[in-house]
Amino acid sequence: MRRPLNRPQGPGAALIWDLLTFDRLMTNTVVHLIYWAGLAIVAVGVFGFIGAAVGVAIRDPFPWGLLMAIPVAVVGLVAMGALLLLWRSFCEFYVAIFKISEDLSALRADMEAEKTKTDR
Prior knowledge:
Blueprint: H1 11-20, H2 27-59, H3 63-119
């Protein structure tokens, strides 16, 4: 088993150390940023569907345009709700995977500490 590297002290050195090694995973922060970016994309899609429904209603001078716009808006909102749930579950899956990884590394460190105690 390899010997762990000595972690440098200081605020800047610790940040660089975390970037260069995998002792501390930064993926949770990245997943949160990706999650919010995905929510922004879904919000743009919702505005697009609402705009399409309004465009259909305005384009047709007869009442049929309004009758066609309502299903477009409802289907768009339902589809975007499903996309929001799917996106959230996708991001939660990745967060759970990385939490499991962190828990396993903590268990490994505990087992190694226990082993060094019993070897003495």
